[in-house]
Amino acid sequence: MAYPVSQKSGVISIGPAVVWNIPRSEKLTKVLTQKGLTKEGELLTWDWAAKVDHVIQSRIYLRYFAKKMLAPSKFYGLLPMQVIDSVISTDAP
C-alpha cells in the first residue's frame, strides 16, 4: 500500500507498507496487552497509544479502499485521516 508510514521524526515520505488483516480496535488492544506483547503490570504510555492509533487508522483506511474497490497501491492522500475526514464530511448533512 502506498502510505506515509509513521516515523518518530524526519520528513514525511510515501513508501510501501505491509497490508495485513488488522483486527477491530477492541480485539487489537486486547491482543496487544494480553498476548505477551506487553509485560504484566506494565504501564501503557502515550507513545504506545499513538502507535495503536496509527494501526487503527490504517485499518479504517484499508476498509474504505475495499468498500469502494480502490487499489491500495495508489496514493489517495497524505494521511489516513484525510481520507477518513473526507468520507465523514461527505456523509454529513
Key phrases:
93 residues, two-stranded antiparallel ribbon, single chain, mainly alpha, 3 helices, 2 strands
Could you explain how this protein is built, in words?
The structure is a single chain. It is built from three helices and two strands. With 93 residues, it is mainly alpha-helical. It has a domain at 20-30 and 44-87. It has a two-stranded antiparallel ribbon. The longest helix is centred in the middle third of the chain and has 23 residues, at 46-68. The chain is globular and about 40 Å long. The N and C termini lie far apart (31 Å).
Strand order of the largest sheet: 1-2
CA gyration radius, whole angstroms: 15 Å
Distance between the termini: 31 Å
Quaternary structure annotation: single chain
Number of extended strands = 2
**Helix share bin:** 40-55%
Strand content: under 5%
Shape verdict: globular
Summarize this, please?
The chain has 93 residues and is mainly alpha-helical. It is built from 3 helices and 2 strands.
Helices and strands, with pairings:
Layout: E1 2-3, E2 15-16, H1 25-34, H2 46-68, H3 80-91
Antiparallel strand pairs: 1-2
Helix pairs in contact: 2-3
